[in-house]
Amino acid sequence: MVAQRLHTENSAASTIQINMPSPSFSELFAQDKPLLVLAPMQDITGVDFLRIIHSYGGADLYFTEYFRVHRDSKPDKDILKSVDANPTGRPILAQMIGRDTSALVRTAMLLEKYPVAGIDFNLGCPAPIVCRKNAGGALLRDLPHVADIMHALRAALKTRLTLKTRIGYYSPEEWEKFLPFLKVLPLDAVTIHGRTVREGYSAPVHYDKIAEAVRELSCPVIANGEIRSADKAIEVWKSTGAAGIMVGRGAILNPWIFRQIRERLHGTAVFLPSFRDLYKYIERIYSETRIPGMGDKTHVSKIKKIAGFISCGLESRPSFHAQLMRAETPCDFFRACGDALSSDEPCFIP
Ligand SMILES: Cc1cc2nc3c(=O)[nH]c(=O)nc-3n(C[C@H](O)[C@H](O)[C@H](O)COP(=O)(O)O)c2cc1C
What we know:
- The protein is α/β, with parallel strands linked by helices.
- It has 15 helices and eleven strands.
- The protein has helices spanning 25-29, 47-55, 77-84, 101-111, 128-131, 143-156, 175-183, 207-216, 230-240, 249-253, 257-266, 275-288, 296-311, 320-326, 330-341, and strands at residues 2-7, 15-20, 35-38, 62-63, 67-68, 92-97, 118-123, 160-166, 189-193, 221-224, 244-247.
- Strands 3, 4, 5, 6, 7, 8, 9, 10 and 11 form a nine-stranded parallel sheet that branches. Strands 1-2 form a two-stranded antiparallel sheet.
- Strand 8, helix 7 (175-183) and strand 9 (189-193) form a beta-alpha-beta unit.
- The protein has two domains: 2-266, Aldolase class I (TIM Barrel); 275-341.
- It is 41% helix and 15% strand.
- Bound molecules: flavin mononucleotide.
């Protein structure tokens, strides 16, 4: 049993202690409801963010940010903290990105000595700095090499092996050949972000391809892409039949989303956070992700990268984003938050 801290915005006691059993990986998928997964997001989903988001209800499964792997790399110490000091009490997969098979095997064997639920390989990152090195999503142009990497990892590892991928590199038509390729990979689970690398982060998501993967693959499939509300999560779960639902940017904007999905599934009242609750959440991100010794201006500029996902997602506060992005000092930053978020009205429709 692990102790989990659960934050309750609508009760006088802001924090209560509850005990929850820590499930095994296979038990996680053996359920008649979707497994709720927080997407890995570089420079955001570090140990502090995991602790914060888990306190709002949290996911059932977490990923680390990716460990960059190359010939001379060592696992990043800050990312290792998410595993070593996993504040969620839930399983966490260690994600790697790279293309050097022997370096990936060496790193995975090191990582599996830590308390991880398995090793995940990144086959989707579209960042030019990654793709220029033919890693991340760019590897979708070299499937024989992906097969070599995955078989080498499977042969070397005792722990589970999972993959997080997009549906192709250039065009959704690649899926026709990619799906049979996925079918023969030695995987314990696969996450599918239903877009190609070229489709970036805003094109419509091909949920039909995710549904096809669910029908064809023997391992559990986690559906990912543009899930921003509890209703959308349930709609994607039902329409694809996926075993899991992964939420990324929607969970930065609305850390209550996992709780709201569970409440919708149970048919109980859905918690509706107010703008003021959102303000308190941003305050927590500000104070709990601060690196000791970091100056105010540097911290504000770091926090703006996270808070920007919140301000640009709040359609009912159209001037918030620009005001927040102009902030240079803590005073400017909190003035922008105060101007936009001092209201007890609900801020999201579930
Ligand atoms: C800021 C940012 C950082 C990301 N970093 C990673 C990463 O480290 N590993 C990964 O597999 N995907 C990464 N992604 C992709 C997300 O995991 C997810 O697949 C994508 O955002 C689509 O899901 P969403 O629409 O719910 O955000 C990142 C996305 C964003 C926005």
